[in-house]
Amino acid sequence: QPQLQESGPGLVKPSETLSLTCTVSGGSINSSNCYWGWIRQPPGKGLEWIGSIYYSGSTYYNPSLKSRVTISVDASQNRFSLNLTSVTAADTAVYYCAKQRGNSAYYPLDYWGQGTLVTVSS
Amino acid sequence: DIVMTQSPDSLAVSLGERATINCKSSQSVLYSSNNRNYLAWYQQKPGQPPKLLIYWASTRESGVPDRFSGSGSGTDFTLTISSLQAEDVAVYYCHQTYNIPFTFGQGTKLEIK
């Protein structure tokens, strides 16, 4: 079964870009035939889907974040990444990466990383 | 956006008793071409990521105890824990993947009475 691990800065300044990477082990992104997603959870609050990507690079984004979000994949390194520009305090959250259960972005999320807390503060 | 509304917000149930959590979507999440409800249930314990319990509204994920079951179709769904165990204390979320943006319910906190 795949294992996912998020990595990146835990502190980002307002107006700057949040960049996170999810490294997948125990399976190849190329041969997985599934989508991979990013989800976030502000401290003490609920879950918000950010977007999803296929190994080929096909993406789906949450329209509320679409103007600021880019999700990319580096299959050679078996990882995918999240960039969120022009961050504010409202972007402070635990960010999770996850695998979707099949070759559609409309499938549920069956494996999750442990999550990484990103705080936006000067 | 499809709004997912869970009830109750919190629930206290005695060990061995049944726990029932409801989830209502603002529009149907049933895809008629394959007769699947694009509705999943997750369990989240403190400091942990969500764990997939149920998908397609009623299909139990591999390894999930059979005391967990999901039911419903269209806009109304239920997660049932038939006999509550201490390790079931968690927050439970419903999640629709029928329409983008995919959305979650606000969560239901389940505790032991």
Can you tell me about this structure?
The complex is a heterodimer of chains A (122) and B (113). Chain A is globular. The model of chain A has no long low-confidence stretch (mean pLDDT 95). Chain A is mainly β. Chain A has strands at residues 3-7, 11-12, 18-25, 35-41, 48-54, 59-61, 69-74, 79-84, 93-100, 109-112, 116-120. Helices cover 0% and strands 50% of the residues of chain A. In chain A, the strands form two sheets. In chain A, strands 2, 4, 5, 6, 9, 10 and 11 form a seven-stranded mixed β-sheet that branches. In chain A, strands 1-3-8-7 form a four-stranded antiparallel β-sheet, with no helix packed on it. In chain B, strand 7 and strand 8 form a beta hairpin. Chain B contains no helices and 13 strands. In chain B, the strands form three sheets. In chain B, strands 2, 6, 7, 8, 11, 12 and 13 form a seven-stranded mixed β-sheet that branches. The N and C termini of chain B lie far apart (36 Å). Chain B is mostly beta strands and 113 residues long. Chains A and B meet through strand 10 of A and strand 7 and strand 12 of B.
Put the structure in a nutshell.
The complex is a heterodimer of chains A (122) and B (113). With 122 residues, chain A is mostly beta strands. Helices cover 0% and strands 50% of the residues of chain A.
Kindly estimate the percentage of residues of chain A that lie in beta strands according to DSSP.
Answer: over 45%
Count of alpha and pi helical runs of chain B: 0
Q: What structural category arises from helix and sheet content of chain B?
A: mainly beta
Q: Over the alpha carbons, how many angstroms does the gyration radius of chain A reach?
A: 13 Å
Describe the sheet with the most strands of chain B: 7 strands, mixed
N- and C-termini, Cα separation of chain B: 36 Å
